[in-house]
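Pasting as-is:
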Amino acid sequence: MTDAVVPNPKREVRINFNIEEVKKALKTLPEFVKPTILKIANDTMNFYQFEAPAKGIFSMGMFLEISLHEISEKQTVIQFEGRRAIGWIDSTHETTETYNFINGCISMLGKALKGELK
């Protein structure tokens, strides 16, 4: 019997910052979320992909994909999706670790937007 494949962990947040501020703050995440690398930054499509190199249960690494959607001049929706670099997330433990990583990135992004990170 094989493990069942579960959907990639996703989160969505709506914040009261304009999309340009969010783009700028996103690009600073690798400075504060170690060891994260910005792999793709497509400002036209509002899509960003970060790589978290191999660590813990993600022996081959994982990706965090972020999409931005402008709701109004002062509101942006941010969609986060975590996935393995190779294969798929197939256990509750991996899902929990991925959500923890996403939540940590959301926290750091919030601090960056509020100017709390230097």
